[in-house]
Amino acid sequence: MIPLWGMFIAYITGSLSDNGYAMSQMRSMLYISIFFFVVTMRLNVILKAIWINGIIMAVLTLILFFLSQLGGVFLAAIYDYCNASDNYTMAYNRNFLGYAINGLYFKAGSLIIFSFIYNLYQYKGPFRLFFTIVLYLSLMVAGSRTPMLVQTMILLVYLYDKNIFGKFLTRVSALLFLGVLVMVTYLLATQEKESSNEVKYDNFESYVEDMGDKGHSIWGAGLGSEFYAKGRGLKLSYTELSYMDILRIYGLPVGLCFVFLFFAPCFWLWKYFPRSQFLKRYCLGYVLFLILSGTNPLLLGSIGLTALSLFMAIVNKTSEMEKEKKELLLDAGKSESTEEETEPLVVDNCLLR
Questions:
Q1: Distance between CA atoms of 297 and 60, rounded to whole angstroms?
Q2: What is the helix (H) or strand (E) element at residue 228, kind and residue range?
């Protein structure tokens, strides 16, 4: 209903100029129907399916990344493939604090975050260390700075939780590395002459100006409408700032409700947190994924809607398991009390029930 509302606003205000983007967002919203299939599976099956898919993507990412480092025909073939099918993969040449890196990554690779958390907290098999290294490195070469920082933060939280090197040493080290991570994040976010930063900051300014015009902050500019993005120097219907897109297109009242829908599974899972450390960290990974998606054009596409569908299913299955446990406990309590009530009492050689 939300994209229909956005198209309705764009139509009646005469701002519907990008029908292709409007229809693509309508199609992307249909990915929420994955929920009705996933919710029929058991919780452990859902989690293992996400884990296995993440490992497959991680292995492919690393293979293609290392081939791209060989240059020559490998690099040319990979870049041609990425340019021909940029909906699935992206090639990049990025500058990280003065170091230039070439490579590529899958757009759905951000979902590897959930595989990484499952591998750390749940998987106990013989290849645990190998899978951990593969999953970690795959996001380290993902082309965007945010996945690198997210992956490192998850690893630090895991070391903090498990006290691998002793409680005091582990916690002090984790806090120290977390401080370094925050500093690196700040340096990357404020790095001068970095094209990505300059584009994002200029586009953000353009969003603010557009939302202050013609009541767009109230009812929105409409789905398929365009605005002038200073960062690109073009009129665009969307950019990589997904949350600003939502607020510009749908207005603050509907837009904030839309944003809340993505974060809602975290609030629903809140009551189960004390009983499962894994569930806590899995939910933390989902929040980090939403932050990552907010600075990349992933949230309103098939990837963001797939993540939302999966977490809605996880909430549903967790709730069902909790209800089953309560029912079993109640049944056990009733059976015990019934046995006590029906136990024969011997009084003057007479049996009373």
A1: 22
A2: strand 227-229
Q: How far is CA 117 from CA 39, 121, 151, 169, 196, in A?
A: 21, 6, 9, 22, 28
Tokens linked to 59: 């292995």
* CA dihedral over 124, 119, 151, 174, signed as positive or negative: negative
Q: Give SS3 for 104.
A: strand
Q: In 243-272, which positions are buried (b, 16+ CB within 10 angstroms) versus exposed (e)?
A: bbbbbbbbbbebbeebbeebeebbebbeeb
CB within 8 Å of 321: residues ≥ 6 apart: 43
State the amino acid at position 8 in one-letter form.
F
Q: What is the mean pLDDT of residues 325-334?
A: 74
User: What token pair was written down for 186?
Assistant: 């700040």
Which among 303, 49, 291 has a CA at the least distance from the CA of 151? 291
Span 76-130, pLDDT tens digits: 777 777 777 666 677 666 655 566 666 666 777 888 999 999 999 999 888 999 9
Burial class (CB within 10 angstroms; exposed 0-12, middle 13-18, buried 19+) of 220:
buried
Are the CB atoms for 231 and 207 separated by under 8 Å? no
pLDDT in tens, 79-88: 777 777 666 6
